[in-house]
Task: inverse folding
């Protein structure tokens, strides 16, 4: 398992951002990106549960990390998030993402959040396009 570099000021995983969610991403041998997280009161939407926007941000970042790790400097152009079960605060949630298709202009990825019992709570699909010009001054572009 390989720990991926963090992204500085990133909202989801950056150590230079005081409001960051603080996630650390790992690459499994099957090229799946994963991490686990315990959402806190600062991520609350419905009482006792994670805000849908927090779930979407984490899944977008997971898919983006998978696409970046596959060697593509990209930006998201479409996200589809499906909420299957409420995600409770204070429990260990598993997040996974992977690249599913690579085309000349678009890269497709999928992701999911799993509850402690292994059931899927939230899924994501993303379409990413090459955008190296957005990252020319960054450490990961």
Result:
């Amino acid at each position: 398992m390989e720990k991926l570099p963090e992204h500085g000021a990133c909202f989801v995983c950056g150590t230079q951002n005081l409001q960051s969610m603080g996630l650390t991403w790992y690459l499994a041998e099957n090229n799946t990106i994963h991490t686990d997280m315990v959402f806190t009161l600062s991520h609350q939407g419905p009482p006792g549960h994670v805000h849908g926007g927090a779930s979407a941000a984490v899944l977008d970042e997971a898919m983006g990390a998978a696409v970046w790790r596959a060697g593509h400097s990209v930006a998201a152009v479409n996200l589809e998030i499906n909420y299957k079960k409420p995600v409770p605060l204070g429990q260990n949630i598993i997040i996974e993402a992977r690249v599913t298709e690579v085309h000349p202009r678009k890269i497709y990825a999928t992701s999911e959040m799993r509850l402690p019992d292994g059931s899927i709570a939230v899924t994501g699909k993303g379409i990413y396009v090459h955008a190296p010009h957005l990252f020319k001054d960054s450490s990961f572009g």
User: Anything to note?
Assistant: The longest helix spans residues 52-69.
